[in-house]
Design goal:
Helix content is 27%, strand content 33%. The longest helix has 13 residues, at 110-122. Strands 6-1-2-5-4-3-7 form a seven-stranded antiparallel β-sheet, with helices on both faces. Strands 11-10-9-8-12-13-16 form a seven-stranded mixed β-sheet, sandwiched between helices. A two-stranded antiparallel ribbon has the order 14-15. The chain has 271 residues and is α/β, with parallel strands linked by helices.
Amino acid sequence: MYKILVKEDLVPNIHLFKIEAPNVAKKAQAGQFVVIRIDERGERIPLTVADWDEKEGSVTIVVMEVGTTTCRLALLQAGDYIADFVGPLGLPTHIDNFGTVVCVAGGVGVAPIMTIARAVRREGNRVISILGARNKDLVFWEDELRSVSDQLIVTTDDGSYGRKGVVTEPLKELLESGGKVDRVIAIGPSIMMKYCSLTTRPFGVKTIVSLNPIMVDGTGMCGCCRVSVNGVTRFVCVDGPDFDGHQVDWDLLFARQCIYLDEEKSSLEQW
């Protein structure tokens, strides 16, 4: 059993949990994830590591209420326990001194982008971060992301905060400005990551995305998380979650993500 040390409500329907998991904290790296299960009857879901503290023995995850499991998790409080907390899983994000790195975070994607932006800046990169949300009420960790960035641009779809528009607009402006961009790292909804990849493709800037398909065991055995990258079948849990966004078959990913929508809706309604 894994104890919840801290529970914090960040914005409506998005929550932070700090979990006591010393063995995971010892080995966690930016870009990796964990698979959790609330109790013995619960389903297994993957969640990206948002932070960790090896001395404290804690791992932080940020959870958005979407389906039955995440809504159940949102009801737990500090002092409660969850049954399983397996990780760190997946390959860590490749960190090097690239030059100028643009980190694009959509919605809850700011949580995993934080650790990556921090790591690439420590390597001496110039970090430009773009933080996007649907509206002002859903913007969180702005100050935290700014603290690990040389420049931060905030966008909201409705213009209620920052500049009005989607994240691909300032991304394209940066690419067109003549300043050299050596790498783009985009994390958020799949549709956002697809269009970030389409935006950078004409400029030839390598774009890394963190894929989020359906996943069960997290060890490559079940095959649920398979995706097509450059025409080759890959398993996100062991080959990723990071991939070259220019090589991902996005249409196949979208189709696979929708396989159980009816069952997920029915489960949430019954719960």
